[in-house]
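Notebook entry, structure prediction.
Reason for the run: the old model in the group folder had no record of what sequence produced it. Starting over properly, with the input documented here first.
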Amino acid sequence: MKAIVLAGGEGTRLKAVTGPLPKPMVPLLGRPLLEHILRLLKKHGFTRVCAALKYRPEDIRSVLGDGSCLGLRLEYRVEEGELGTAGAVKNCADFIGDEDVLVISGDAACDLDLSALWRRHRERGPAASLALRRDAAPLRYGLAVTDAEGAIRAFVEKPRWPQVVTDLVNTGIYVLSPRALDAIPAGRRFDFGKDLFPLLIRRKELLLGVPLEGYWCDVGTPLSYYQCCADALTGKLNIEPGEGFCPAEEPEEEEGAPEGFLLELPCRDRAGLMGRLSQWMLELPADYSDGIRLRRAGYALQICPESRKSALRIAVKADDAEFARRLAFSARDLAKALDD
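New structure, fully documented this time:
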């Protein structure tokens, strides 16, 4: 199986972090982003890969070579002029031949099941299959509207909230048939989202949307880059780290967990809410060495944040069980009022 990796990005918004590095060479857990993508392709059976290059191509070639170190046959095509996303793939036409081909960005981080996307494409035979992913806040991305059978009926590019009509984000990972490739003109700028896909829809061709589970992040800004690094370190993003890097271990349960009557209060900002509670209880006085602790004759109250979610844990231990229950609910009501 063949794949095209779009690896021509300069990464202008990342230059404050990465300097002159091409965007696909930005490091993630000790390996370039592009290497992680190549490893993902190899994992799913794509052993013949062509990288579409533009910005500082020798920086990429000198590191990855012919791909043999990764168990791949890696070729390169260098873009001359402005060809756009689809035009860059057309520039690799001699590599593709008359076959279906998978197209993926070399500067995004993901662990999506590419095999599932390929299978669905082969089963349905559309002009193109698009990997989609659900996102609760999809404003940064292009959206795809699908019918009950998965056929894409419309696209919405980087909407504002009033234009959000679905949570299905276009990840920029596609399987293209030869007839989709034939629709791309050679030697001029042509993009997937603006040009090719609307053209195929007008021609009544089937574009198949395939929602996939897993992690995907467009590493386009310093904030998204740092978030991606954190996700990789905690294991949320499943990638193979370079030497000396490993995912963080799950934190152990704290010793001395609250005992007695327990309540949990979900909140928007546990640290901020704890700050407001601390100020409110300064005059009581409370102990702040382990959450907020208030001890009096016959009872002890403790309020502390949960480790793994945005919530507070309220515990009361008292000689009188009914008093413990009422005090816990009173503390919860106070916290809710301060969280509003």
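Summary: The two ends are 55 Å apart (CA to CA).
The old model has been moved to the deprecated folder.
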